[in-house]
C-alpha cells in the first residue's frame, strides 16, 4: 500500500502523515497504543513540588502544608513541600522562576515576591528574577500582620511601646524575615508613622524570626496571624495591634493601627501560588481549577487555615493578577522609601 501511494505521486509530507496514521490505527486495533500517547495532556502524571522560599514555621509554610495535602486529594499525586530559604525569599522564588515550565514546580509565595527584585536593584545588584518570569495562579489567604511582643515585656499597648521607643531610640529591636521582606516593610510603615527608631534584626524567614522573639533574642515582631495565634493563646506573646482595616478573627481584642490613630499603617501578608510564566495555559488552568476546588470544598483545608488564624481569601484569574500588580506597585514604593540597607 505504501509503495502504491508513493507511486501515485503523493507529496513526501502527505505520505508521512498517512503512514503515521496507518501505523497508529494498527497499534490501536492491537491494543498497543504507546502509553505516552494515551497520557498526552494529562496533568499531573507524577509528583508536583511546592516550593516555600522560607524556613518552616512562617506564613508561607503554614499555608503551603495543608494546601499541598488538599491538592494531593485532587491531583492523586504526591505534592511535597520543599523549603528553600535564603536572601529573604529570593533564592526559592528565583528557583521557581527558572524551573521547567511544565507545572510540576510551583511556588507558595508571600506579598514580598514582587518587591524583592526592586530591593536587589536598590542594593546595586541585578535581580535574581523578575515578576514577569512568574505567572500568578491563585491567592489563598490575605491577612493583616500583627505587632507582637513577649508577654513578659512591659508594653501592654502601642502607646506604651511608642513612648518607650522615643525615650530609647534604637534600643528596642524587631525581627523580620530578611531585609525588604514582608515583615520588614510592615514595620517600616509603622516606625515611619510613629516617628520612632527601632533596631532591625533580619532573619532567614518568619519562622526563625518568631523563634527569636519567643527566645528573647529580639523585642518585637510583625507577624502573620497564623504562626502567632497559638503563642498568643498560650500566653507566651502579646499582640498590641494589627495592620488591617478591621480586627482579625481570633484577635478580636487587638485594635488596628487605624483605630489607634495611624490611618496609613495598613498592610496585608498574603499567600499565593505561582508557576513559571511560560507554563502552558491548560496546565495553569488545571492548577486554578484544583486550587479553586480545594478552597471552596475541602473542609480539612478550611479547618486547618481557620485554626491557624489565617482564613481562606481565595482569588484567581484576572482578579488575582490585578491584585498582585497593584499590591506590588504599592509595596515597591514602600521599599524605595526604606532605601539601601547596609
TrEMBL record:
Matches recorded under Pfam families: TctC
Top-rank taxon: Bacteria
CDD domains: PBP2_Bug_TTT (cd07012)
InterPro entries: BUG, Bug_dom1
Family: Belongs to the UPF0065 (bug) family.
Xref: PANTHER family: BLR1237 PROTEIN, TRICARBOXYLATE-BINDING PROTEIN
Protein name per the record: Tripartite tricarboxylate transporter substrate binding protein
Amino acid at each position: 500500500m505504501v509503495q502504491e501511494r508513493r507511486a501515485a505521486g503523493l507529496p513526501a509530507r502527505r505520505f508521512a502523515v498517512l503512514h503515521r496514521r496507518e501505523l497508529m490505527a494498527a497499534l490501536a486495533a492491537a491494543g498497543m497504543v504507546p502509553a505516552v500517547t494515551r497520557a498526552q495532556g494529562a496533568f499531573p502524571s507524577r509528583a508536583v513540588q511546592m516550593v516555600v522560599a522560607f524556613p518552616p514555621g512562617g506564613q508561607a509554610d503554614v499555608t503551603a502544608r495543608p494546601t499541598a495535602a488538599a491538592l494531593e486529594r485532587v491531583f492523586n499525586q504526591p505534592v511535597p513541600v520543599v523549603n528553600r530559604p535564603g536572601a529573604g525569599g529570593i533564592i526559592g522564588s528565583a528557583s521557581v522562576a527558572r524551573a521547567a515550565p511544565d507545572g510540576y514546580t510551583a511556588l507558595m509565595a508571600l506579598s514580598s515576591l514582587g518587591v524583592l527584585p526592586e530591593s536587589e536593584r536598590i542594593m546595586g545588584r541585578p535581580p535574581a528574577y523578575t515578576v514577569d518570569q512568574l505567572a500568578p495562579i491563585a491567592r489563598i489567604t490575605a491577612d493583616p500582620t500583627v505587632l507582637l511582643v513577649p508577654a513578659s515585656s512591659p508594653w501592654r499597648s502601642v502607646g506604651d511601646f511608642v513612648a518607650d521607643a522615643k525615650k530609647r531610640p534604637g534600643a528596642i529591636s524587631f525581627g523580620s524575615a530578611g531585609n525588604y521582606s514582608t515583615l520588614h516593610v510592615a514595620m517600616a510603615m509603622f516606625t515611619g508613622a510613629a516617628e520612632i527608631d527601632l533596631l532591625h534584626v533580619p532573619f532567614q524567614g518568619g519562622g526563625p524570626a518568631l523563634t527569636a522573639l519567643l527566645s528573647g533574642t529580639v523585642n518585637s515582631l510583625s507577624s502573620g496571624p497564623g504562626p502567632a495565634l497559638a503563642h498568643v493563646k498560650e500566653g507566651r506573646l502579646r499582640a498590641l495591634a494589627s495592620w488591617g482595616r478591621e480586627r482579625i478573627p481570633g484577635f478580636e481584642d487587638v485594635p488596628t493601627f487605624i483605630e489607634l490613630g495611624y490611618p496609613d499603617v495598613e498592610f496585608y501578608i498574603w499567600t499565593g501560588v505561582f508557576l513559571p510564566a511560560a507554563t502552558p495555559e491548560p496546565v495553569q488552568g488545571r492548577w486554578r481549577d484544583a486550587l479553586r476546588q480545594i478552597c471552596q470544598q475541602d473542609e480539612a483545608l478550611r479547618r486547618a487555615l481557620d485554626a491557624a488564624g489565617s482564613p481562606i481569601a481565595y482569588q484567581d484569574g484576572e482578579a488575582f493578577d490585578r491584585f498582585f500588580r497593584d499590591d506590588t506597585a504599592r509595596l515597591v514604593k514602600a521599599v524605595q522609601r526604606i532605601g539601601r540597607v547596609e
